[in-house]
Amino acid sequence: MVPPESILTDRHLDIFFIVVNEFCERFSYYGMRAVLVLYFKYFLKWDDDLATTIYHTFVAFCYLTPILGAIIADSWLGKFKTIVYLSIVYTLGQIVMAISAIHDITDTNKDGIPENMSFHVALSMVGLSLIALGTGGIKPCVAAFGGDQFQDHQEKQRSTFFSIFYLSINAGSLLSTIITPMLRAQECGIYSQQKCYPLAFGVPAALMVVALIVFIIGSGMYNKTAPQGNILVKVCKCIAFAIRNRYRHRYSQFSQRTHWMDWADEKYDKLLIAQVKMVVKVLFLYIPLPMFWALFDQQGSRWTLQATTMDGDFGLLTIQPDQMQTVNPILILVLVPIMDSVIYPLISKCKLNFTPLKKMTVGMFLAALAFIAAALVQLQIDVSVTNIKKLTMGQLVKPNSPTHILIYFPENPAAVPIRHWSPGKDHQHAGQTGGRLSWRLKFSLQPFTVLTYLIVCVLFHRFFNGYSSILNITTGTLDFGSTVKNKMSTYANVPHGEAKFHIKDNAGNQCDYSLTLGFGSSYTLLIPSTFKFGTNCEKSINTALDIKPNSFHMAWQIPQYFLITAGEVVFSVTGLEFSYSQAPSNMKSVLQAGWLLTVAVGNIIVLIVAEAAKLPDQWAEYILFASLLLLVDFLFAFMAYFYTYIDPAKIEAQFAHSDPKDKEKKKSLEMGRKDSDGNSNSDRKSSYTSHNEKKDVQSRM
């Protein structure tokens, strides 16, 4: 026999291809997903609710399709072909997403705004559908395919492979959530410079191409097992037969059986029925679990949107809102060894019976606390950030009196308040923005130019030119365009920090005006008709602070990330460990499919709750989710209290050697049942009754 070590050495290259493939695929998926909700909000111009809805719909499909991928691989194509074919679908989806984010495709007037947004939306939906099918389809195949490369006596080498495999998953997700938001923050474009979503989606697409090529290169080295039938399908058929058979014998004249799965005894052997009982027992405990994932997966939606309204300035480093998601994988790498090496041993020394189900209960409680922390953060944000109601009509209205001008800012998603001025005299003006913050300005007013802008893409902005000649105002790569007298400019966004505005007229005169812009703040610049180009020209420009800078820092999100990640470590890792310990040896994949299904259902719950609740304040929605999870957590604790732990190996051993006579009897009964299909119900009834005279001695699982 060849020593295991030499076999691993000879075959190490195929494992390399599989690990690199998984790293690139996870980088591609999590990188695209990190910026997805901001793409919906700022590129497709969707509101927060719609962006959240589509985001969680996509994630739900990503966790529904693994069941389809497992069935295809085990029943028809085999793992290798399934991975290759669905990876091609996956790659096409990423490429379509990158193309959908190119604003220049439909920007016919070259102003930086796509003219045909429906085209971009349609491409996005096609791309996301292909990605969901691809990433979900290969999810259950890659790890299992890697395990197939080892022989039965190479358990240690297989364990080492899985450790490296899951390390590549965490490394890919961590790096992508750091790098992709940085790519998004860049500016690119052919006609106008905008946030570079094509690059943010293009790099994950390129990584998926690399993943596919690397995996195919190793084709000749792989151990490819032929499809042998999917155990999930067999389990579903067994359960369906038991339910149908029980329904047919629902009347009192039929003798009852100990467990409802025993009604499958006519067609399936007792070993399979016993295994299905163990699986069903665990799946029953899965019923409350989706609520945990409903909260957990909002890190990429609601929490990311929350971060867009916070200050991301960390001194020398500015954190993008979508980069806050990196806190989760970083904390996982820190908390997993701490839990295993410190927390759990301490609890054990205290003589506390901290069972897996108790750990999962604590994990859900921590997730609920995380959303309470998010609600507290949101309350502080609501104090710091002004909520301004949207105006829907009017652009520039001149009342009957020639001495007054009334200015509206319509298309703005959160419109600037109406301003009403009387030229020619000192004017004291007080305005309110959303009923929270007030501003007051006193100045001697003549016909003027108004420039309104808000920072970090929270709002869109433009200026009104009341000056005697055409003005062009630019800052950095942003151009407000040439604006004639009494006309509005197009909207633009100005990043926070030190901004220098270049004001020019048709004669070539220029004035540079500098202003330090706070994170999330809004200003109004007033340029009177007495304004003159030349030395000290900036001194005649008046500045009014409409909305104070958002001083509430992103670092305040770290406690909620810590709580949700601690909950994930205690809940998710323990849940998988518990499921595997309570599952039959050949049905662990069934429980894996059930576990992934809870994630999908959790994201569907977000859609239902967010659409049904329609709460006016975001903090109230956080409290609602926390309350629902606490309620579900109590239900799960009640269910766990009555759960009895089992040893699947011992139960399987009882049925390992079935009585041949019992098999023959079952076969003859099955034939008799088929032959009696055309006879009366009384004949069929007597056949089953004679069989049911034998009581099943199995206890209720």
From TrEMBL:
Biased composition (Basic and acidic residues): 658-701
Topology of this chain in the membrane: Multi-pass membrane protein
Biological processes annotated in GO: oligopeptide transport; protein transport
Chain segments annotated as transmembrane: 53-72, 84-105, 117-138, 159-179, 199-218, 278-296, 330-348, 360-381, 445-464, 592-610, 622-643
Keyword terms of this UniProt record: Membrane, Peptide transport, Protein transport, Symport, Transmembrane, Transmembrane helix, Transport
Gene Ontology molecular function: symporter activity
A Pfam family assignment: PTR2
InterPro entries: MFS_trans_sf, POT_fam, PTR2_symporter_CS
Keyword Transmembrane: yes
UniProt keyword Methyltransferase, yes or no: no
Localization per record: Membrane
Gene3D superfamilies assigned: MFS general substrate transporter like domains
GO cellular component: membrane
Annotated segments matching region Disordered: 657-701
Similarity remark: Belongs to the major facilitator superfamily. Proton-dependent oligopeptide transporter (POT/PTR) (TC 2.A.17) family.
Name of the molecule in the record: Solute carrier family 15 member 1b
Organism name: Labrus bergylta (ballan wrasse)
